[in-house]
């Protein structure tokens, strides 16, 4: 396994993201600490200097395992489950732009918050069909680029639709696209899964990407999650992808990044 850190390329209200206003400085520090990758959270790819980002990422020899899309929901209200058909259409088009951006880095596209919340007054089955349609279109666009899509279950306090890995697996089956996989996030799993270990084991064939954060969303080792068992399970099920730290930048971005890499290197979980 390899280790990545999640940063935002744009200003965001989402607290569990470090903002990389000075991208060179941020990526330089990650590389110095021993990270092999950086996961990029992007609200709107059209507002990003793609060539600059590509140049900086390559200059520090970092991989980009995934592209986050949730800021489009938080900052603009884009949602695959919106009762407004124009919003749903705009969301589907935005995700296709994320696919184009991700393809430059051979990265996967994450569908988490951007699937939205099925609001009161909307028939749940109808809302689910809207989400399935949006995910399917994203997967088909990603398939044309040869990249994957990662479906992220989120806890019930953030979203009311698909909170566990098993619910995610059901949705994957309904979408029916072969490049759609689960994103397992330890913070959300700690809230929703009866057993993190059993869920990882039962979903082994579907796990395409992993987010790590401790129980308090701080760096691993700062809460009560048993990461020795969690990462040991990932090794046992032959997960060979990235562990991306999506954590609160507490007490600072630099310290959070340092705590994360030190924690995992001490357990010899991360390849060098």
Automatic annotation (TrEMBL):
Protein name in UniProt: 5-keto-L-gluconate epimerase
Domain Xylose isomerase-like TIM barrel: 29-255
Database matches in InterPro entries: HyI-like, Hyi_epimerase/isomerase, Sugar_Epim/Isomerase, Xyl_isomerase-like_sf, Xyl_isomerase-like_TIM-brl
Superkingdom, taxonomy of origin: Bacteria
Keyword tags: Isomerase
PANTHER family: 3-DEHYDRO-D-GULOSIDE 4-EPIMERASE-RELATED (PTHR43489:SF7), ISOMERASE (PTHR43489)
Gene3D superfamilies: Divalent-metal-dependent TIM barrel enzymes
Natural source organism: Candidatus Hakubella thermalkaliphila
Active-site residues annotated for this sequence: 152, 246
GO terms assigned for molecular function: isomerase activity
């Amino acid at each position: 396994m390899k280790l990545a850190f999640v940063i935002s390329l744009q200003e965001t209200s989402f607290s569990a993201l470090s903002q990389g206003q000075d991208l060179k400085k941020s990526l330089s520090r990650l590389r110095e600490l021993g990270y092999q990758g950086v996961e990029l959270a992007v609200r709107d790819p059209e507002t990003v200097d793609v060539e600059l980002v590509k140049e900086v990422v390559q200059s520090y020899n970092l991989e980009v395992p995934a592209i986050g899309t949730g800021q489009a929901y938080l900052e603009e209200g884009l949602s695959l489950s919106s009762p407004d058909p124009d919003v749903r259409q705009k969301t589907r088009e935005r995700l296709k732009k994320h696919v184009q951006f991700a393809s430059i880095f051979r990265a996967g596209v994450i569908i988490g918050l951007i699937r939205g919340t099925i609001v009161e007054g909307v028939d749940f089955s109808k809302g689910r069909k809207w989400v399935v349609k949006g995910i399917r279109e994203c997967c088909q666009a990603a398939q044309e680029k040869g990249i994957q899509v990662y479906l992220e279950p989120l806890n019930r306090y953030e979203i009311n639709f698909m909170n566990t890995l098993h619910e995610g697996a059901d949705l994957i089956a309904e979408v029916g696209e072969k490049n759609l996989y689960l994103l397992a996030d330890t913070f959300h799993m700690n809230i929703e899964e009866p057993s993190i270990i059993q869920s990882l084991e039962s979903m082994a064939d579907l796990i395409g990407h992993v987010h790590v954060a401790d129980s308090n969303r701080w760096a691993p080792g700062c809460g009560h999650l048993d990461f020795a068992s969690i990462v040991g399970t990932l090794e046992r099920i032959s997960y060979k992808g990235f562990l991306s730290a999506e954590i609160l930048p507490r007490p600072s971005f630099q310290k959070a990044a340092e705590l994360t890499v030190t924690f995992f290197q001490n357990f010899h979980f991360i390849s060098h």
